[in-house]
Amino acid sequence: xxxxxxxxxxxxxxxLLCSGCGNSPGRPAADAVPVDPDDISDxxxxxxxxxxxxxxxxxxxxxxxxxxxxxxxxxxxxxxxRRLTTNGVxxxxxxxxxxxxxxxxxxxxxxxxxxxxxxxxxxxxxLRGESAPxxxxxxxxxxxxxxxxxxxxCSSCHGPGGAGGAKASSIVDPSFLALVSDQGLRTAxxxxxxxxxxxxxxxxxxxxxxxxxxxxxVVAWLASxxxxxxxxxxxxxxxxxxxxx
Length: 245
Hints:
245 residues; mainly alpha; Cytochrome Bc1 Complex, Chain D, domain 2; 0% strand
């Protein structure tokens, strides 16, 4: 073989060997290399891994309220969403997700979740010109008046005394009240549970809206139905995990 032919043969052999390197036994595929969890910045992935188990696929609700609810997003601003995701809610099923609070997510990843919820699920005109009761209660509730508010706005579905009716289950069940904070009750009264057919603050009684004080009072009444357990902190806010409530 002449020198030129020999060189061509060597180069061809090298090219053949190199082309097979990517499929060598034991060599991982490019997409099999683990990704650092801190580098994940896709909303869909972050939501599916951290939120969907309780709040449902696509935010449509599960054990906890629907996050893809434009009414909820209209009353809960970004700082509220970020605080809840960061710190969780003590005494409830909502854990802290931020690394700074013992969770697994970076501050940047929490921002991705909050921004993604807002971009995908909010609707600017959802309140249709009405002023919703504020997310947080500006005034303490009156439990005695709350019983009257409950009778007007809630009893047709949840039954007399809240023990359940033809349209909805009990909302004074001890296990339920032990797992939900006062703020969680307030949020549910304002935004409803659309995935369960429960109306928001506008739809309980035709032509009659609940005021912010009505909401505060009925929440105070519901909270008064909690079983008193010695040494257990009262779930009266959405403070960070570890704080007395």
